[in-house]
Amino acid sequence: MKSYPSLRLLPWSSPDGKPCFLADGGEGGYVSRLADETEARQLADGLDVLRRARRVLEDPMSPYVEVRYAGVRLTECLADTLRVAESRGRRLPSPESTEGGGADE
């Protein structure tokens, strides 16, 4: 069976909003490391936004503009997190490839 290079979904989009992919040439390349760092930063930002949003939402006297801003930021972070999850999920070995249990995997 012919093997095709896998494509990694990158954590950013093209200028026109289309997904960007990296042909898997092994771990450790510059773009791969940049994508790993970007994903880590996006997840950390999401955690920070979540903490701040909880404080705003727990206060019933929070101004509308703060609640709306929290919602906007939460949706941005959720989109980033879902993209990271999709990218990482694509890189998991398929059940078919792990059934053989060979030493070269």
Report what the structure shows.
Residues 85-105 are annotated as: Disordered. The chain is mainly α. The chain has one domain (7-90). Helix content is 58%, strand content 11%. The chain is built from three helices and two strands. The protein has helices at residues 30-58, 64-90, 95-99; strands at residues 7-13, 19-23. A two-stranded antiparallel ribbon has the order 1-2. A hairpin with a 5-residue loop joins β1 and β2. It is elongated, with a radius of gyration of 19 Å. It starts with 6 loop residues before the first strand and ends in a 6-residue tail after the last helix.
Number of domains: 1
Q: Give the integer mean of the pLDDT values.
A: 87
Secondary structure: number of strands:
2
Order of helices and strands: EEHHH
Overall shape: elongated
Q: Strand order of the main beta sheet, please?
A: 1-2
Structural class: mainly alpha
Distance between the termini: 17 Å
Strand content: 5-15%
Helix content: 55-70%
Poorly predicted spans = none
The major β-sheet equals: 2 strands, antiparallel
| Separate helix tally | 3
Backbone CA Rg? 19 Å
Region (Disordered): 85-105
Which helices and strands appear, and what pairs or packs with what?
Blueprint: E1 7-13, E2 19-23, H1 30-58, H2 64-90, H3 95-99
Brief account:
Residues 85-105 are annotated as: Disordered. This protein is mainly α.
